[in-house]
Fold each of these.
Amino acid sequence: MRAFDAMGTRFECVLVAFSRAMQPFEPVAIAEEIELLIKDWHARLSVFDETSCVSVINRIAADTPVTIDRELLALIRRCLHAARMTDGAFDISLGSLMQAHGFRPTPAETAPARFGWRSVRLDEHASTIRFTQPGIRLDFGGVAKGFALDLARNELRAQGLVSGLLHGGTSSVVGIGLSPDGRPWRVRATPDDPSAPVVDLTDLAMSVSAPTGRMANGKGHIMDGRSASPSSGCLAACVVGPSAEVCEVWSTTLVVEPALLDALPPGFQASIRRDDLWSSSGQPVPFDPSPSICSEVHEHVRV
């Protein structure tokens, strides 16, 4: 097992089996590559590092187009598409709202008047980004972990991994193949809630979002750009599917707008918590809500 800190949380990876024979040092070297990969994207997406790509964009994109690499361009493009599909329930351009509500070291005195994904413009040919008005601030807190876990999963698959488990803070999890006992990787959506769904992950990802993940002034950290305030949609959302990035986008979306529960992309399923009750999407959901089944992620990754 390898554990490290990045993106404001604790990542852990368990590499159980590969499709080829390996020297004893190789799994360790591969795990180190995964750590470097995730930390590199942490450095590029961090809003707390003034030298990061995102901080540079936030400072000058309202004045001049900023050239960015193709990977970041593609990530922003997908995020803008998600904002369009969810009518703004998911929005990476609400960094100024995060600051206004106390989730930055220097909170703003008043709520910003300008924010929203429609003010973000990409030039695919020139590989640039610009803002159409000042005050826009990108924040990838609702997608970064899932994005990084997808990259890590793809690299591990390329290296021949056939059994493993990756997670970022236990709220974003990827299961590769089967667990050592030959069964799916089994994870409870929220380990401290015995009524939460238990999910079997075989080549699947899971993301859980909840406003209480971070609090400031008694309010949660997930913003609703439509009301310019912290979300009050539901208490938690869990999404399962083949992409950790898409799972995180939609778990964030459902916390803001639970009415989109049955609007998930094909191949993804979800469950949301209102008060003390969990409800699932209309699609078949691989959840076992039985409180007698405990989460095995604790045994495998020592969360």
Amino acid sequence: MIKMTRFPMTRNLYSTESCFNISPYFPFHIVVAALTQKFPVHRHDFLELSLVIEGEGRQVINGVTYPMAPGTCTFLLPFQVHEIVPGPSKPLRLYNCMFDSDFLFQSSGAGLGLKDLLFPQEKWVPSVRFTAELYEFVKSLMHGMLTEFVGGELWRDELLRIKLSEVLIRFDRQRRSESTADPAKTGGSAHADSIWSVIHYMQTHYQEPITLSGLADVFELNSSCLSADLKRHTGLNFVRLLHEFRVRHACSLLACTDMNVFDIAFEVGFGSYPSFLRIFRELKGVAPGEYRKRFQTNTNTIAT
């Protein structure tokens, strides 16, 4: 069992605990987490699916409070801001599953249509409470995912995809049946249905010289409206969001490879080495070389 630790405001899949276990072909991680104190406000650039198995508490997602108890299942989109507050009596234990948004788009290509889970985000609640029977069924699926993930046997990623797809479908059925959203209030922005496609495009093309105007042209959107929607959904402006994606990739390369820092700068999409150094330090608080040293030190400490 792994305890959640404190992370910076923006988290990514390539954390110290998970970097060497994640397949580059299927970015996915699952643990049983135990919370004994408040997990502070944070956001992340991946999708997160959790299932409470013990204890009680509450979580605040984009300013709305939801209770947590055994059977509570939560599905968080990239950059949704949230915090978790466990109850005072005993630790809040939950399966915590993290994966890249590519999974939903790849599944849609296979005919499952799972990318519909991404939008519109205003329409469906992010947290539901399963019935006792469904809770036991979904809990067994989560346990199966954890077993497959740590086992690393043949066809691991394929089985993980199948089990994850079923959990997501069960969750979506439940939240649609529970939804009390006012149809007049669920439309959101005129671009709400496309904003997650834009974010996904940025996640898969950040190594290219992307511009806001060029992105707007690709999706046939107004640049000003697109800029406002990105800020509203992620809390970041276009440039900062692009830098987040590039620096995230740089962090994973620094942590998991011996690639030269100079080469990393251009590999992740920066046009100049000085710009990379300046922006990396702004976002991470240290130079790339120091980040690598700290990561290696932490990894060696864990190993011993």
Amino acid sequence: MSQLKKVLIYRRGALGDTLLTFPVAEIFKKLGYEVTFCGNLEYLQLAKLSGLTDQIISSEFFLSLSLEKFDKKVIISTEGNLNPFPKKRIWLPIYYLKTLGLPRNFSLTLPFPLFQRKKPDLAILHPGSGSSKKNPPFELFERIENFLERLGFKVIYLAGEAEEWLLGLKPKLFYSTDILEIAKFLKEASLFVGNDSGISHLASYLGLKTLVFFGPSDEIIFRPIGKRIHLIKRPLACRPCFPKVCKERPCLDPEILFKLFLRALRYL
């Protein structure tokens, strides 16, 4: 029996960056490769549990790996063989697969095995992100909270390290920095509303009805993977502009975004 070909995928980055790399691992698995994924070990647990990779390794040990044992090496880095930043505005999973000459028939739902009973009235709000420049004023989420509660939803805020300012501010709060615990909690919900963040990427990939506000960041490049996602954005000529964001931030006007949210909710 012939040995499986081996591929090493390296991607060091935040949660959203890592999740947008998962289709590469999935396609190599479909092609019969033994996949080793090197990066943020906590986030890569999601790939391992979902059957997208055979082995996960922390990026701390990348330099000590014996690269010659791999038939293919996909090093997603400015110093690697696949630049993480496309020269043109193209969705990252498609850019990766196209550059590598791989098929593009990847799943839009992460096959995460932890089953949670859905709560049809549970809505999760996540008002933060990895950069405050991408966050609309908090009043937007408070308006959404009040609106959803009037519709009969049970609304709970989700907070991690970047949202510790929510502690003590909102009594209905789920706080965690454990990605598997967060994924388990997300799978209970029927609706998720957030900003351009790693948690929004995860919610969409897990199959939730997901509404995501994109202000200064680029929704074409960084669109989350998912079947039931709706991006809320203003058609302004000045966007995307991240990380060079203006003080006025018209792309994150809470009044206009709330109206767009109401419109988007009807189409989910």
Amino acid sequence: MFNSYIPKNEPGIVKNSGLFFYESSELAKSIYNYIYWGGQYTVTYPYCVKRDYMNSFIAFIIMEGELFFDYLGKQFSAKKGELVFLDCKEKNHYYAKDTATFQFIHFSGSSIQSYYDTLYKLHGPKHTSAIAEKIMHTLYSLIQYQEKDQDFSISMEIHRLFGELIEQAKDKQSFRYSPTARIPTEIQQAIEYIHHSYSQTIVVNDLAKLANLSTYHFSRQFKKFTGKSPYNYLQTYRLIQAKNLLVSTNLSVEAISEQCGFNNSSHFIKFFSKSTDGITPKKFRALKL
């Protein structure tokens, strides 16, 4: 079906580490998210792909180097650890100026358009997430080894991929702006202090002093412009950092708890479980994320 979209000769490919086609069941195509094909390339100049239209979506994870994109009137690049999502029904162009390595998947599904549109409106086509990066590698492994009856697993991983990025984008958006106005300098200073010092003990009174406001007025202003109380904002930010450490390092739960500023590991586990519908940090790490 899609062979006509794959160039027979692609100049600039230094190494093709695998191009894997996946044949989803008719059931999967009717109700699940599913993958057409994926691969891993190492490329250099003059590698270039231009497409006017293809009825699928594509996701990239850059593993080394930098890949360049021209999409929806915008030009940008993605470097190691960054993910890019494109709707291939729109004109798209991606290319290399120097050596780069990346994995990619072409995929679709009944809910993908809504997922994609939501994610793009929140944060555009480019993202960074240690959890999402690991999910991309999992999806690549699933189509690489093609074990029996894995349509549902693939669908769930794609669902988890978009869910993680959408939730992260929502948090970042609430961290930056209010619905009606730009965040005042004194509130922005408090936010930046939290981002740099979340591993330390932080109390609202100290943040209010930093903003040169009374505790009461500071708390009201902070919630007005972020949508969260100072305490909830701090704990949410700590939780995001903890999740990234759980999937990107081998640090113990106790070490992550301390590094992210929680009072003790028991409090961290309780807060984490409450925030993830009962999933403990150890179970979260053990999931196929």
